[in-house]
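Appendix C: a fully annotated inverse folding record. The material below is reproduced so that readers can follow the format used throughout the book. The structure is listed first as tokens, followed by the designed sequence.
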């Protein structure tokens, strides 16, 4: 649905390697709040309608607020992406309906790629943050609430190594890198072993 909006950030000769979104579990709170706002008016349907036109107005206002909260969570989930391409990394931060920030960096400007898993929930469900430190005056690129952040960190560092050789990385080389990372994570080894 929103793939065209994501693709318009790409250059003509650029290929998408991976599109990363926040882990769906991160949106449990906003979706739960939206569900409460949608269900609550039906629970109080009789008392609200007993108040007459004010009660009907309150019923529909609460229902509309719940629908808007759910729609906002869906839009943020769909558009808040981290795009890894064969030439650069693009971070699209969607914070609301009308609040979007797009950052990008090329692989030669990346100084460090790290991930952070903090807390009980992140440890149990294995999600965390990816932090890319860049050279110069560019701000760091961060994506929070990502599933399996260490695999993404390994993918970015491997692509960065391939790009540092001075050649563009092909899609088949990237597929081999991804396979290597997945195989090593299943074996419990790091991809460098």
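Designed amino acids, in order:
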């Amino acid at each position: 649905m929103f793939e065209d909006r994501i693709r318009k950030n790409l250059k003509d000769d650029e290929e998408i390697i991976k599109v990363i979104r926040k882990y769906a579990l991160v949106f449990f709170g906003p979706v739960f709040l939206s569900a409460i706002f949608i269900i609550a008016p039906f629970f109080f349907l009789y008392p609200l309608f007993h108040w007459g036109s004010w009660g009907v107005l309150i019923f529909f206002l609460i229902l509309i607020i719940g629908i808007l909260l759910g729609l906002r969570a869906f839009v943020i989930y769909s558009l808040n992406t981290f795009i890894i391409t064969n030439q650069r990394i693009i971070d699209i931060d969607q914070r609301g309906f009308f609040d979007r920030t797009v950052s990008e960096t090329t692989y030669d400007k990346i100084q460090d790629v790290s991930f952070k898993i903090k807390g009980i929930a992140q440890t149990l469900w294995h999600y965390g943050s990816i932090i890319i430190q860049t050279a110069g005056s560019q701000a760091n690129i961060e994506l929070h609430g990502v599933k399996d952040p260490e695999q993404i960190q390994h993918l970015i560092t491997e692509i960065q190594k391939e790009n540092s050789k001075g050649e563009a990385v092909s899609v088949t080389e990237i597929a081999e890198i991804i396979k290597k990372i997945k195989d090593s994570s299943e074996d419990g080894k790091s991809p460098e072993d």
